[in-house]
Amino acid sequence: MIRENLHIIQDNITKAALASGRQPEAIKLVAVSKRKPVTLIAEAIASGQMVFGENYLQESSEKIPQLGDKISWHFIGNLQSNKAKQAVMLFDVIETVDRLKIALKLDKFAAELQKEMTVLMQVNVSREEQKSGVFVEDAGSLLHAIREQTNLRVTGLMTMPPYGIDPEESRPYFRKLRQLANELSREQLFYDNANVALSMGMSGDYQVAIEEGATMVRVGTALFGRRI
Ligand SMILES: *Cc1c(COP(=O)(O)O)cnc(C)c1O
Fold first, then answer.
1. Whose CA is nearest to atom 12 of ligand 1?
2. Ligand 1 pocket by Cβ (under 6 Å)
3. What is the value of pTM for the model shown?
4. Phi, psi of 118 (to 5 degrees)
5. Nearest to 128 by CA among 101, 164, 157, 97
């Protein structure tokens, strides 16, 4: 099941990339394994998947140590200050940095652990009140402040469009994130301004996200089935 799903998704990624004149290798699949057991994750690993996304620290701290050290783990959940140390210890990339307070904590623990922590800045493009992420107009000044932190590498941006809309309706949000990334990279605000990461697109809309420039797609349901 997992193997077939993985092949279908990889095939769709390749098609969407080629259709928009991009290299399929430029797009990384982040397999979102929240609330899925290690047995299923192990199945995905056995099928060649090496990058996973998790949302909850408690759950991650139980699962990650069981799955070996060859896997790259992305934190994609809401990050609380009191969990920052755990996040730095467990994860290779933290995709959801959206305020200075969290960035300062992450930097402090990264320094303690002598780790260069790769992070993305989460942007609330859709301006939904309940949603995490910095507003577009505040993104530049926040990025300025975060990049001052010596143990953080801000490699790009992450966003989530409003939940449950049609894939085509997600397109303007993805496009907006790419435009913002272009502006910020012109100001040389990222770690590598020639290769800015754009984490956008989930099970329902990853092909559209790739057409709009995604370099990472975060896919859960289409790979592991519905979460209960
Ligand atoms: C759960 C989650 C996903 C995966 O969503 P699916 O629709 O299951 O693919 C992607 N990104 C974030 C931030 C999530 O929380």
1. 76
2. 32, 34, 55, 76, 160, 202-204, 218-222
3. 0.98
4. -80, 130
5. 164
Residue 201 CA to ligand 1 center (angstroms) comes to 9
How remote is the C-alpha of 107 from its chain's centroid?
Answer: 19
Joined together, the tokens standing for residue 72 give: 């790259």
Q: What distance in angstroms lies between residue 217's CA and the mean position of ligand 1's atoms? A: 9
Give me ligand 1 centre to Cα 54, in Å: 9
| 95: its two tokens | 């995709």
- pLDDT of 228: 83
Over residues 103-136, the pLDDT tens digits come to 999 999 999 999 999 999 999 999 999 999 999 9
The secondary element (H helix, E strand) that includes residue 139 is helix 136-146
| Residue of 169, 147, 160 lying closest to 202 (CA atoms) | 160
pLDDT at 70: 95
Average pLDDT, integer, range 87-104: 98
